[in-house]
């Protein structure tokens, strides 16, 4: 039995590597006891802003066996998105994760392949794939499975790699060899807290989502708050400040996923060109991009706000 666990675990991790995942960690599916009071407190303080969906499925967020009946293992996977080339300096900025094809499509395809591999090589295994679109606490599971620790900016951090990667999971009804969490290596560093333009990191490991630039530019459907006018740091979609200043991200290396390569136009556009953006150009530039989430009207609103029109 133990031999099978070790064998199956190695098979899954080797296949994950073949599919291009940066790393794979596995933890026992069960109730996230430590996360429950943290999530409840965060919601009670309205740190989710207008993201009402965060209030839904509270129990399922904390217990994957409610999402996948009979679940025994959470297979956490990391996929690098750090770009080789970045936008020009004097422009309105897009978060690096959104340079290329929407990660939901890219990762879902890889997870589907991994699940098919498991069924073909291990036997019939029931499970579901998750990519940031269901009530799963990705970072908590990744940390539990030893892929990194939660930094003070609340992102997962990994030695030698940093934090510019996506997190995804397979939740399956198969017993495996479980990994153990790693220690925290943030120490006394407060670079992310000090650098946040809107002071959204209100405490170590606690981000007030309702003050975050990413929230303003992507999730917020109403007008942007006037207090943020001079604090947006030219971000028109997302924000990477807390990751950019993190010392661990000096180890970030460019990804090798062609679908994450940026449209060259996005990299070279100047502020004046972004100000002249039309619906037609938006549809062409961001055809399969995560930026589509904010829609043309949303991005236009953000650009106007950065340009002093609100």
UniProtKB/TrEMBL annotation:
Which Enzyme Commission number(s) are on file for it?
1.17.99.6
Q: Where is the active site?
A: 132 (proton donor)
Q: Name one GO cellular component term.
A: cytoplasm
Provide the cofactor note recorded for this chain's UniProt entry.
Binds 2 [4Fe-4S] clusters per monomer.
Residues given in the record as [4Fe-4S] cluster 2 binding sites? 196, 212, 239, 242
Q: Which annotated residues bind tRNA?
A: 221, 297
- Enzyme class, top EC level, equals oxidoreductase
Give the residues the record marks as binding [4Fe-4S] cluster 1: 186, 189, 192, 246
BP term (GO), one: tRNA queuosine(34) biosynthetic process
Regions crossing the membrane: none
- Which controlled-vocabulary keywords does the entry list? 4Fe-4S, Cobalamin, Cobalt, Cytoplasm, Iron, Iron-sulfur, Metal-binding, Oxidoreductase, Queuosine biosynthesis, tRNA processing
Q: Where in the cell is it found?
A: Cytoplasm
| Sites where the protein binds cob(II)alamin | 61, 132, 156, 167, 214, 239-240
Coarse class of the protein's main subcellular location: cytoplasm
What pathway does this protein act in?
A: tRNA modification; tRNA-queuosine biosynthesis
Q: Which cofactor does this sequence's record say it needs?
A: [4Fe-4S] cluster; cob(II)alamin
Its job: Catalyzes the conversion of epoxyqueuosine (oQ) to queuosine (Q), which is a hypermodified base found in the wobble positions of tRNA(Asp), tRNA(Asn), tRNA(His) and tRNA(Tyr).
Q: Which family does it belong to?
A: Belongs to the QueG family.
Protein name, UniProt field: Epoxyqueuosine reductase
Species per Swiss-Prot/TrEMBL record: Leeuwenhoekiella aequorea
Gene name of the encoded protein: queG
């Amino acid at each position: 039995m133990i031999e099978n666990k070790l064998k199956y675990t190695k098979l899954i991790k080797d296949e994950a590597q073949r599919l291009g995942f940066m790393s794979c960690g596995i933890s026992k599916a069960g109730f996230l006891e430590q996360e429950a009071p943290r999530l409840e407190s965060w919601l009670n303080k309205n740190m989710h802003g207008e993201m009402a969906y965060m209030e839904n499925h509270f129990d399922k967020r904390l217990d994957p066996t409610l999402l996948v009946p009979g679940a025994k293992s959470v297979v956490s996977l990391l996929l690098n998105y750090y770009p080789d080339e970045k936008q020009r300096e004097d422009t309105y900025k897009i978060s690096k994760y959104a340079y290329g094809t929407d990660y939901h499509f890219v990762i879902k395809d890889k997870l589907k392949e991994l699940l098919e591999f498991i069924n073909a090589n291990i036997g019939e295994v029931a499970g579901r794939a998750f990519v940031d679109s269901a009530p799963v606490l990705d970072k908590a599971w990744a940390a539990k499975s030893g892929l990194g620790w939660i930094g003070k900016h609340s992102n997962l951090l990994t030695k030698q790699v940093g934090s510019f990667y996506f997190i995804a999971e397979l939740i399956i009804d198969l017993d495996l060899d479980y990994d153990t969490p790693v220690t925290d290596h943030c120490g006394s560093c407060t670079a992310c807290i000090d650098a946040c333009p809107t002071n959204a990191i209100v405490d170590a490991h606690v981000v007030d989502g309702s003050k975050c630039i990413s929230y303003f530019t992507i999730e917020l459907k109403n007008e942007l708050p006037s207090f943020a006018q001079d604090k947006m740091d030219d971000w028109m979609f997302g924000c990477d400040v807390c990751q950019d200043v993190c010392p661990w991200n000096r180890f970030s290396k460019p990804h090798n996923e062609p679908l994450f390569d940026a449209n060259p136009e996005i990299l070279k556009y100047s502020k004046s060109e972004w100000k002249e953006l039309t619906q037609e150009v938006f549809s062409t530039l961001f055809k399969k991009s995560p930026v589509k989430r904010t829609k043309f009207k949303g991005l236009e609103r953000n650009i106007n706000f950065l340009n002093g029109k609100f």
